[in-house]
Each structure stands twice: as C-alpha cells, then as structure tokens.
Amino acid sequence: MAAKKALSSLSRRERQIMEVLYREGRATASEVLERLPDPPGYSAVRALLRILEDKGQVRHAADGNRYVYEPRLSRDRAGRPALAGVLETFFDGSAEKAVAALLDLSRHELTDADLDRLSDLIEQARLEGR
Amino acid sequence: MAAKKALSSLSRRERQIMEVLYREGRATASEVLERLPDPPGYSAVRALLRILEDKGQVRHAADGNRYVYEPRLSRDRAGRPALAGVLETFFDGSAEKAVAALLDLSRHELTDADLDRLSDLIEQARLEGR
DNA sequence: CATCCAGTGCTAAAAATTTAGCATATGCGA
DNA sequence: TCGCATATGCTAAATTTTTAGCACTGGATG
After folding, report:
1. Looking at the structure, do residues B113 and B61 belong to the same domain, yes or no?
2. Is the pLDDT of residue B12 over 70?
3. CA–C1' distance A33–D8 (Å)?
4. Is nucleic acid strand C under 7 Å from B111's C-beta?
5. Distance B42 CA to C13 C1' (A)
C-alpha cells in the first residue's frame, strides 16, 4: 500500500507538509500553511494535501465545516525509518555517534533526571539485548 | 552562502544524491548512479551533480580523467541539523524518545562494549552539562 | 588505424511539482 | 438581509525538476 511508501520518495513540498503533520500530529490546511517554510497560498496547500491523500500518506476527517488532516502512518512507524536513514547517511550507522550528536544537540535541555532515564534505557537494552 | 542552505530545501532527486554523497563520503557520477533508488541515466545524474555544484552543495575534484564529487558541508555540519529535524518532527524534540528508538533500531548490533560506550557518553554529558 | 568504452560540457525537452484562481458553500457579525 | 472571512472541489497553468541526447575527448584494445 502507498502508505507504506517512504517519506524519502516525496517531493520537496510534499515532504515539508508531511513534516508539519508529523510535528503537529494533525492540522487543518490553514495551520499547515502557517507552518510551512516559504509558504505558498492556501489553495496550493490544499491541492498538495489532496495529492498526499491520493498517495495514501494522509487522511482527513471533517471537523465541523473544515477538514483536519493527519498522517496515515503513525509517528513511530514513520519516525524509525527516518531516524535509521539519518543514522546511515551521516553517522555510519553508528548508534554511538548518533547518541553523541544527540547529547550535544540537547545539551542545554537535559536534566540529571533526563540523563538517568537515558542510562536506564541503556541498561534495559543491555538486559533485553541478550 | 548557498552551502549553508538546508538539505531540506532540495528537491527529491537532489536530496537523494546528497544522501549518497554523505553516505559514501565522495563518489564519481557513475558511483552515485549505482546507488540511487530508481536510477535515471548517467547524463541525468551528471546534470544534477552540476546543479548541486551550482547551488554550492557539492564540489568536484578531477581524479585522472573523471570527476570525484563530495559534499561541501562536512558530515558533522550536515548531520546535526538532519538529526535535530528528525528529533523535532517525530520525537517531540525528546532525546529520550530518540535514544529509545535508536536502541531499538540497533538492538541486534549492539555489543556490551557498545553499551558501555553509550553509558560513558551519558556520564560525560552529565559532567559537562552542568 | 578504427572501435569501444567511459568520461565531460551543454542543451532543451519531457515530466513532475507547485501554484493560483474560479465557483460554490457556510458561518458570523452588523 | 448583506458582506466578509473561511472553507471545499476542481482545474489548468506556471514553474521547477528531471531526463536524455548530442558532440566531443581520452585511453585501451585489436
């Protein structure tokens, strides 16, 4: 099914719109428009949402008299391949390198409690990985 | 300068080519061609490499009688924003969620030594973060 | 020598993407 | 009621992207 198709095969604008939808979880066309870099007009966004729906990447639900769009594939199901792709492309597939970069990126936001949780994740992986 | 421009503003094929180049570090046009999903012809790849060079994303060096292309921005300088983007788009900006997904992705490849190194990274972050 | 193969520079056409605009509908406020 | 703002369905044109093809070069081979 088309919904299984990688985000990486989408065109530039399609991809930007999918990213807005994944970030927000769901959004109306006008909300998508507000959050697009270098935004086109409203009808351009709607046309692209329709295309994405035709492609099976997006679905909409009527909310009163307007449509709310959301990705058809869950965040988890889409986020993993995206993360794996970045890992492979920029980090030699190395979790260590990626975690190092992650820690660096998040440096100013991570509390001790956060770091404890990360340590716990690693311990868990250690227990489960065998 | 254009080289600072985000990979996210590239078109579909341009982006695919940049990903090949980041993955391989450097490549000739024919090597890029081999590694592209749903590859076009050789001259199509060369035309796109020239466009990417015009845009400042790529440079080439003559290697004998052929050109070897590489990204102008380093892997580190390009990989961080890419990782940050995935973090924000799919993981609410949460390092914890991303690490959990990373560990899951890498589950079958991580040795105890790898996990030790990840733990060390976290300890380092703990010491440096304050 | 001629031929073949792999390469480059360049162009322009084919294809895909992006965009805006029209007709229509609905809801709200004056 | 009317006017305005926001919405949808739809189309097609504008724009960008992608592609292939031509002319040429250089090296290797028979």
Report:
1. no
2. yes
3. 16
4. no
5. 17
Give yes or no: residues A61 and A104 share one domain.
no
Asked whether residue B77 is domain-assigned, the answer is no
DSSP B97-129: HHHHHHHHHTTTT--HHHHHHHHHHHHHHHHH-
Domain of A7: which CATH number?
1.10.10.10
Chain-centre distance of CA B56, in angstroms?
Answer: 16
In B39-95, beta strands by DSSP E: 58-63, 66-71
- What's the pLDDT score for residue A130? 53
Nucleotides on strand D lying under 7 Å from protein C-beta: 6-12, 16-22, 26-27
Model pLDDT for residues B50-69, shown as the tens digit of each residue: 999 999 999 999 998 899 99
The answer to whether residue B84 sits within a structural domain is no
Distance between start and end Cα atoms, chain B: 35
Looking at the structure, tell me whether residues A6 and A44 fall in a common domain. Answer: yes
- Closest-CA distance of chain A to residue B35, Å: 12
Query: What mean pLDDT do residues B11-24 have?
Result: 96
Q: Which residue of chain B has the CA closest to A88?
A: B23
**Which value does ipTM take for this structure?**
0.90
* Interface size between A and B, measured as CB pairs under 8 A: 148
Do the Cβ atoms of A83 and B103 come within 8 Å?
no
A38 occurs within a structural domain: yes
Closest CA to D25 C1' — which residue? B65
Q: Per the structure, how many domains does chain B have?
A: 2
Amino acid B69: pLDDT: 97
Give A117→chain B minimum CA distance, Å: 7
Residue B129: inside a domain, yes or no? yes
pLDDT in tens, A57-107: 999 999 888 999 999 999 999 999 999 999 999 999 999 999 999 999 988
pLDDT over 90, % of chain A: 80
A49 & A11 share domain: yes
User: Which of A113, A79, A126, A105 lies closest to B118 in space, CA to CA?
Assistant: A126
Residues A11 and A43 in one domain: yes
Domain that holds residue A56: 2-71
Neighbour tally for A51: CB within 10 Å = 16
